[in-house]
Design a protein that fits this description.
With about 525 residues, this protein is an alpha/beta fold. It is built from 20 helices and 15 strands. About 40% of the residues lie in helices and about 15% in strands. The protein has a six-stranded antiparallel beta sheet with strand order 3-2-1-6-5-4. A five-stranded parallel beta sheet has the order 8-9-12-7-13. A two-stranded antiparallel ribbon has the order 10-11. Strand 14 and strand 15 form a beta hairpin. Helix 11 crosses helix 13.
Amino acid sequence: MHIRDEFIREITLRICSSLEIKESLRSAFEYLREQIPLDVLAIFIIDKRLGAIRHIAHAFEKNAVPPDEIIPLPEGMPEAIAARDFHAPFIVDPVVDKIFSVMSPLAKIEGNTDLIVPLHMKEELLGGLTLRAWGEGRYSREHLEMAGYLAKPFAIALANALAHEEVLRYQDVLMDDKRFLHRELNRGFADEIIGDSTGLSTVMEMVRQVAPLNNTVLILGETGTGKEMIANAIHYSSPRKDGPFIKVNCGALPENLIDSELFGHERGAFTGAVAESRGRFERAEGGTIFLDEIGELPPTAQVRLLRVLQHREVERVGGKKPIPVNIRVIAATHRNLQSMITEGRFREDLWYRLNGFPIIVPPLRQRKEDIPALTRHFVAVKSRELGIGYPPSIAPGALLRLMEHFWPGNVRELENLVERELIRHRGGPLTFALKPSLEKGGSRQPAENGAPPLPLKLEEAMAAHIAAVLKHAKGKIHGPGGAAELLGMNPNTLRWRLDKLGISYRRRERGKAGE
């Protein structure tokens, strides 16, 4: 009795010693081969989906030939196995057993002695354990009795291995879903940035240069210029695009919590820290962290960030050991960090670490050629958000008025202006009435005798004149009485001019043009 209990205890400890079934099976094999004849030990299931025997793991002598991982079953064999009442361990006899006479050449039974232990969990057959010894007649009744003690611990090990395999499968599915959603949500992200081939062409060229690398990037520019969009473009054009993209607005975090939020904390590090917590840097593992408004970081956080950039490791608040992190850091600010260094509000060594590859995003007033495309984009996007079925057209000359504005709020100001215009819209084209820019002065001068103000710019005057002629021609461009004939222009030249001035002339607009 003592020997049996010792055997059961030892084999249970070995087969349940690791969640990795291959390691625990190897440990069990080393022990079992000292007790009974054994050259190969394999654990298997009948995989109905594959219609085959699938070996989950196996262990064998160095010179032995391992069993095939997948053994296809002949048609009808899985059903025949399921119909058989396999409970007690048995020694395979291909001569008298029809199932194994068919299986003998597939499973390489001939010339060997196989002892099979059926493995059950809650009366359900999970699979089996195969003990193989070279030569015939190697196992006795005593070996069968000893093999019976293997059923429960190996069944538990097999159930755990199958559950672990299922968890890994679902993990792969979730990762695949995540990658798919990343691709769908950010497909062609860099190419969708408006102005990538015009006003932002230099910026996007720098993005394409730096995206495949792993260095820190500093994005500089006024508020509302689209620094976050550039950070997105860098991340989703990089090898880290399938990893997390953690965005942090450093100015929005309370100063007393910013260290904990960014770098994490250990349990008991401060009042209320009832459990350990990972910070944003740890959560960005394998991906990118975007630190917006980096100039708002307090001095203590600047010191910790410097360590991350220098050594690629973080230390939690209250922690005693560094934690390595595999991340890319992208920072952005609208502040003049060099002035802050002079004032003692920003560390000079941190500035040099961040400023290795600066990207300066120009303000909207320096890339006014992008305003027409941006305006049309925001009209389409905001119309969808506001539930407007069909985006309204833009009035002739409106885009020229927008291009003359100084845009102190940059792209964000333009976006807000479009949204307000759509909310106030009561039919007809969008006119975008703007207050005169203080920086530039007005763009129009009042006419005498209370007449409507006259445009000072040649293109504005041209747009107003062409629109009036087009209205007189009732939207007709080509042919007798058309706008081209009245203006003395080639119809194709007129169409090109209309496109440039943002004047709509399509057939579906003719009704409005003639009103």
